[in-house]
Each structure stands twice: as structure tokens, then as C-alpha cells.
Design goal:
The complex is a heterodimer of chains A (208) and B (229).
Chain A: H1 26-39, H2 42-64, H3 67-84, H4 95-115, H5 123-126, H6 136-142, H7 146-153, H8 158-169, H9 174-181, H10 185-207
Helix pairs in contact in A: 1-2, 2-3, 2-4, 3-4, 8-10, 9-10
Chain B: H1 8-16, H2 21-33, H3 35-52, H4 55-64, H5 66-74, H6 77-85, E1 101-104, E2 107-110, E3 120-126, E4 129-134, E5 142-148, E6 157-159, E7 163-170, E8 172-174, E9 177-179, E10 184-187, E11 201-207, E12 211-213, H7 222-228
Antiparallel strand pairs in B: 1-2, 3-4, 4-5, 5-11, 6-12, 7-10, 7-11, 8-9
Helix pairs in contact in B: 1-2, 1-3, 2-3
Classes of the chains: A mainly alpha (208), B alpha+beta (229).
Chain lengths: 208, 229
Amino acid sequence: MLSVHSVLPSHKANATSNNMTNKINHPELCQWLKSIAIDRDKQAFTQVFKFFAPKIQRIAQSKINSEALAAEVVQDTMSNVWRKAHLFDDSKGAATTWVYTIMRNVTFDLLRKMKANKEDNLSDDIWPLAELANTEEEVFTDHIQSRNLQGIIATLPENQQQVVKGFYFMEMSQEQLAVHLDLPLGTIKSRLRLALGKLKLKIGDHND
Amino acid sequence: MIKHHPKFELLQGFVDGDLPASLAAGIAIHTNMCASCQQKVSQLTEQVAEASFEQSFHHKVIVNDEENLTEIAEMDFDDMINQITASDDVAPTKAFYDERSINFKGMQYTLPSALRNIELGKTAQIGKLSRARLNLGEGEIHTNLLHIGPGGSIPEHTHKGFELTLLLAGTFADAQGQYVAGDFIMLDKRDQHQPATEDGCLCYTVANDALHFTQGINKLLNPIGAFIY
């Protein structure tokens, strides 16, 4: 058994010393992730990046032993943070845990590519990222704004509603929607972008 | 009720991402079926994440590693930030997955989600045993789905390395007792066992060496040991 379990780095002993952990400003990290999710806020992303990237670089370098590949882990992890910020749910765990999961998964897939020569990207199957919600019901019970949101979506043109509901509530990918609605992928993308722009405006109005 | 769980070191290796995919998938399957291990994994992940991104830990490393520090400090992250934020692609709220299932002797089994993208080899059979390889490309570590038909058994055997048997469906029993779906049975070369199933079962197995049959006439069965491995 020992042959397959690499020895843990000594710093892991620190994992239990919780008295040091107040150095991480969790509410601030959560706030930044929310700004990325809602406003695509580049400033907030830069803050998140500056907090995590050097640490990810160092951790990845100790596992992979290559500066270039460690930079790849940083890039992949932080791109995921940018693309998936709207999936982060602070009621399901800390921002550090969420980013850690992404980093660990990216590193695992990269190491598998190197060692086993496999590009099967199994990490998200083995360690699914804690997601905002699993079912439509949950989406609407989890969110304070859910009732509003449903109402606002109903004000969109029918063709945009279709795409928004398919993408966000029926969990279909843009590609699947294109097939399902028999439309070019570009049309799906532009309808979604239009719809999100309108939703952002309207939700903003309600909040002010 | 599930009685057999991965030991703590395995959970820790799982959280760190240091286990081979075969064992990591086994632990993922188990924790999906076992609330108490699920909770341990969540807590451990939270702790490890916190420690990984804590300032003080990095200061310590920096002291020991000054050369690296300057390299990283000089790295230009701005380009990376610009490149990443230039894309307005957003991940779907939840990816849509098809369930994957497999047939053994007319029985259909839905595979755990941890296995849905692993390349699956052809099914081979000897008597009541059917085996489908999961081609993970991990060298001496072999991973299989092993189906034992009703009334079937694996003769008493031992192994030179480790053997994980994770019961996915059905039940089996050996000298230690009954096992149910979710039981995570990690044996090493000290153990001998002779699992038998009344109603048939499906197992996820990971071993790093062929099984070795130990008793009298069963020694003639050592080819089965190679088959199962």
C-alpha cells in the first residue's frame, strides 16, 4: 500500500493548527468571487489572482517539479475561477476550499497526462466541484432572488428565454442547446449574451 | 450497513490528489455511498485548502527557498490576467452527463459517476467470473470491474501486493463476514480470503499484483489469479 501513497509533505502538519487561519480574509475572498460572477469584475479577479496565483505556483512546482508546468497549473486554475465563479456557493464551503479543489483537479489531470499518458481528465468525475445547485428546485430555494429572477426571465423575448432556461435550469451546454433547438452555435451564444445583458440590467435595477 | 472504510491515510492521499486514479476513483465511489467518510473528506479538504493558501505557511517556505522566491516575484502575472479575462466564456451551471451502464450475464448495472469517462476494455469470462478492464494506464496497478455470478466464488487466495475490492452491487461473504454495497475492502499480502456470493455481485477491484491461490488443488487455478488481476 505504501508504494502508491506518496509521503505527505511536512507542511501538512499545519493543516490542524487552526489558530493561524484567521490570516485569510474569507469574507473578502467571497466578495471578490461574487463580483467576478455578477459583474465580470476584472479588478476583483486581479485581487483573487494575486492572492492565489503565487501560492498555486509554489504548490504545483513542488508536485510537478517544473516551473513551466506549474505556470500552466496557475493559468488553468485561474481560468476556471474566472469561468466558474458563478458556480461558487459560499454556503457550501470556503473560497479557499473551492479554489483548492480546482487546483488539485487541474494538477491531477496534468500529472496523469504526464505519467499515464492519458488525457481522460478524470478529476472532475472523481472530485466534482461543489456546485451551486443540483436541481431546478434547489436553484429556486437556494436563492433569495429566485422569485424575482423567474419573473425577470419571463420578460425576455421567447427565444432568449428558451436559451436561458435551457442553459441555467436544464443544465444543457451551449452545444447541446444548439442541437436541441436546431440553431447554429453562434446564435445560441449571442442570444445568451443578449439575455444576460438584459438580466443584469434588470436585476441591478431591482437591487438599487 | 457499510462496515469497511478506507483508512485515514488513504483519505488524506485522496484529498491531496496524490493517489493513483484507480484508488482515487475507489474512494470517490465509497464516499458517495458513505456519509461519514464523505464528511471526513470534506473536513480534511477544508483544512488542507486553508493550510495551502495560508500566508504563514508560504513565508516559511520562502525562507528556505529564496532563489525560487525571486523567480516567482519577477514572473509577470499581468499577461496571464489579461489573457484569462479577455474571454467571456462562462461555464455551464452544470454539465450534462449521460449515465453509463454495463451488462454482465444479462444483468445491467449503472456505473458510479467516478467511472463514467474511464476507457473500458472488453469483457472476458471464466465460469461464473466476468471481468471488464478499466484501462487507466497505471502500469502494474490493474483496475477491473469484476462480476461474480450467483453461487460463484473466488478460491482462497493471497496476493503479493495490495488488493482493493469495493462492492458496487449485491453482497458477498468470506471468513470475516458479510459485505454490502459500498464496503471498501483493502487487503495486503498478509491477508487471505475466499469471497463467495449467493446472489451474485459486482465489484470494483484494484490490485498491483496477480492473486495467488494457496490451497491444494486450487493452485492449479493460478491462471484465474492472473485473469482477475
